Amino acid sequence: MTVASDIDIARAASKRPIQEIGCKLGIPSESLIPYGHDKAKISAPFIQSLAERPDGKLILVTAINPTPAGEGKTTTTVGLGDGLNRIGKKAVICIREPSLGPCFGVKGGAAGGGYAQVVPMEDINLHFTGDFHAITSAHNLLSALIDNHIYWGNDLEIDTRRITWRRVMDMNDRALRQIVTSLGGASNGFPREAGFDITVASEVMAILCLATDLDDLERRLGAIIVGYRRDKTPVFARDLKADGAMAVLLKEALQPNLVQTLENNPALVHGGPFANIAHGCNSVIATKTALKLGDYVVTEAGFGADLGAEKFFDIKCRKAGLKPSAVVIVATVRALKMNGGVAKEDLSHEDVAAVERGAVNLARHLENLAKFGVPAVVAINHFTSDTNAEIAAVKAVAKGFGAEAVLCQHWADGSAGITDLAEAVVRIADKPSSFHPLYPDAMPLFSKIERVAAEIYRAGEVTADKAVREQLADWERQGYGDLPVCIAKTQYSFSTDPTLRGAPEGHAVHVREVRLSAGAGFIVAITGEIMTMPGLPRVPSSERIRLDAQGAIEGLF
Question: Which CATH number fits domain 445-527: 3.10.129.10, 1.20.840.10, 3.10.410.10, 3.90.226.10?
Answer without folding.
Answer: 3.10.410.10
